């Protein structure tokens, strides 16, 4: 069992089940330019990142000349398409997640959410799930709150600052993508966790050498406890 003061969870694919609509929309926005990329390819190169950066990295992976095909129009199209997709989308948490959060809070473990989404999208997801700050989570940090996105540890450091946590060794970072694990490692988190409910497979997550990989975030209670 690992003693933890703060647990930081990625949102989509980790605690939020939005059926990969963001990456499906990102895939559509890029493919509208004449490409034929699979969702798996987009997830491989874009998962967990600030979404404009994700588009840039996907285009780089297919060796697109950024002068001939700039990323900005694709990003603007993506945002408009995503607004339309979210109007009717049903969003829930994964099974067992809310019970896990209750368990952690009962042990005085602080809970932060962080995400490569902007604040507008993150807050929309939370409203759809009827989650409130002070109940299911204690802090939200989005791509808008930092100057550098994952795998830079800036969002983790910001969450620690907001919640008064000083030791990264007592912080857990969990996410569904390789870049979540890299972010945690770059922050020197005491525990890094991959979960297979989202972007990447068990083998892909293990390639980043997390502390452990789970099939469901609800299993986490078996591995951590609050500080004595």
TrEMBL record:
GO MF annotations, alphabetized = phosphoglycolate phosphatase activity
Keyword terms, alphabetized:
Hydrolase
Instruction: Choose one Gene Ontology CC annotation of this protein and give it.
Output: cytosol
> InterPro entries of this UniProt entry?
HAD-like_hydrolase_sf (IPR050155), HAD-like_sf (IPR036412), HAD-SF_hydro_IA (IPR006439), HAD_2 (IPR041492), HAD_sf (IPR023214), PGP-like_dom2 (IPR023198), PhnX-like (IPR022468)
Q: Does the keyword Hydrolase apply?
A: yes
Lineage, top-rank taxon, reads Bacteria
Some GO term, biological process aspect, for this entry: which one?
DNA repair
Q: Which Pfam family, just one, is annotated for this protein? A: HAD_2
Stated name of the protein: Phosphonatase-like hydrolase
- Origin species, per record, is Pricia antarctica
């Amino acid at each position: 069992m690992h003693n933890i003061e703060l647990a930081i969870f990625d949102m989509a694919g980790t605690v939020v089940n939005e059926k990969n609509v963001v990456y499906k929309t990102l895939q559509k926005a890029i493919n509208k330019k004449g490409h034929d990329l699979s969702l798996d390819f987009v997830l491989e190169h874009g998962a967990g990142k600030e979404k404009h950066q994700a588009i840039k990295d996907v285009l780089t992976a297919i060796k697109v000349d950024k002068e001939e095909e700039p990323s900005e129009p694709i990003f603007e199209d993506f945002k408009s398409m995503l607004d339309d997709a979210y109007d009717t989308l049903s969003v829930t948490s994964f099974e067992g997640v809310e019970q896990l959060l209750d368990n952690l809070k009962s042990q005085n473990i602080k809970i932060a959410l962080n995400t490569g989404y902007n604040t507008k999208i993150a807050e929309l997801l939370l409203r759809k799930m009827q989650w409130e700050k002070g109940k299911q989570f204690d802090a939200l940090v989005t791509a808008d709150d930092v100057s550098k996105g994952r795998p830079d540890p800036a969002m983790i450091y910001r969450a620690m600052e907001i919640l008064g946590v000083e030791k990264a060794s007592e912080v857990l970072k969990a996410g569904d993508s390789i870049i979540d694990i890299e972010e945690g490692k770059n922050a020197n988190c005491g525990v890094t966790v991959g979960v297979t409910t989202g972007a990447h497979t068990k083998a892909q997550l293990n390639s980043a050498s997390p502390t452990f990989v789970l099939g469901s975030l609800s299993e986490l209670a078996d591995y951590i406890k609050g500080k004595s």
